[in-house]
Amino acid sequence: MYDERLAFHRLPANKEERTRVIFNALKDAKVPRFREEKSENLSSNYDRVKGMGGPEEATKVMLSLKGKKQKIKWIRQFDGVGEKYSRDIWMDIYDPDFHDSIALDTRVKNFAKLIGLNATRSEDLEKQLLDFARECNLSGWELDRLIFNFGELILQKLKHQDAVLNNQSLNASRP
């Protein structure tokens, strides 16, 4: 649900007032964590977008970027956007440069560990997950969304299956 208070043209020009409006909207939306930090980041990002000429101009720049590296670099200029979210944003809009990407969060890392992937470097883990996705006839984006939307269910099923297999092997080894 969209909160009209957060429409770009409705936000106050004064940064302190704008931050307060954003904070209250986050509070009303029951955003559970870091409301103060998020409202300050969003308020600063408003200034950044305004400096680009507004949302329409910023969007034109965003959509004109070429390649993953350029897109990640551009989006990381915004306060509060880290490594994972810099990929998520592009994946959420199904950008073609990110069809073979996976945003490595805790859920994805836990999933990877449970299916036997054990890379320590993020780049290596993403490569292993992309290889796994290809084995499943999925793109990286599809695997990422599958884990995001159904990861907990998949993990529960894998743990249950593992328990069943362990129980069967215990029973088989008994005289």
Could you provide a short overview of the structure?
The chain has 175 residues and is mainly α. The protein is built from 8 helices and no strands. α6 crosses α8 (140-173).
Q: Care to describe what's here?
A:
Helix content is 66%, strand content 0%. By secondary structure, it is an all-alpha fold. Helix 4 crosses helix 5 and helix 6 (106-114) crosses helix 8 (140-173). The longest helix has 34 residues, at 140-173. The chain is elongated and about 70 Å long. The mean pLDDT is 89.
Outline the fold blueprint.
Blueprint (H helix, E strand, L loop, with lengths): L14 H14 L6 H17 L3 H10 L3 H8 L7 H10 L13 H9 L7 H14 L4 H34 L2
The structure class reads mainly alpha
Give unreliable regions as ranges. none
- Measured by DSSP, the beta-strand proportion falls in under 5%
Q: Please give the radius of gyration in angstroms.
A: 21 Å
Number of helices: 8
Instruction: Spell out the helices and strands N to C.
Output: HHHHHHHH
Mean pLDDT: 89
Task: Provide key terms for this protein.
175 residues; mainly alpha; 2 domains; 8 helices; 0% strand
